[in-house]
Amino acid sequence: MRLPSVKPEGWSQIEERLNSFETRMREVVNNPIEDKRRCEDSWEISKINHQRSRYIFDLYHKEKTISRELYEFCVEYKLVDGSLMTHWKRQGFETLCCSSCIHKANFTFGTGCVCRVPRTNREVKVLECQTCGCKGCASGD
């Protein structure tokens, strides 16, 4: 989606950082994947998406340095993951890695992802999520 020529106030404050995330994303997409497992193909993309969304979320909700208009602009033009940011506002989901890890339809027996289980409750302490590579994003960790 193409951005409009008129951007909200404060855009210059975040533009450079968003461009660096976009550059990293392009590099990851263009990298060869022969030496990776099949599930690892999208892990780095998911990680960059999380970092970019967390950057804007923190600027708006924690540091309060960007306006609501700029925050909504980023969500509307899909510069960030609005669904993920919505979940971060809910108790118990403050450190959620990606939206697909909480959709029960994505997992066997209608359960959740292994990364949502607190490390203290796991039999095997080090596990990676097959969807995004997360090693644990339960709020109790």
Automatic annotation (TrEMBL):
Query: Which GO biological process entries does UniProt record here?
Result: mRNA splicing, via spliceosome
Where is this gene product found?
Answer: Nucleus
Q: Does the keyword Nucleus apply?
A: yes
Q: Which InterPro entries match?
A: BUD31
Identify the Pfam families for this entry: BUD31 (PF01125)
Give the main localization category.
Answer: nucleus
The alphabetized UniProt keywords are: Nucleus
Q: What is any one of the record's Gene Ontology cellular component terms? A: spliceosomal complex
Q: Which PANTHER family match?
A: PROTEIN BUD31 HOMOLOG, PROTEIN BUD31-RELATED
The UniProt entry's sequence similarity note says: Belongs to the BUD31 (G10) family.
What's the protein here called?
G10 protein
**Organism expressing this protein natively:** Selaginella moellendorffii (Spikemoss)
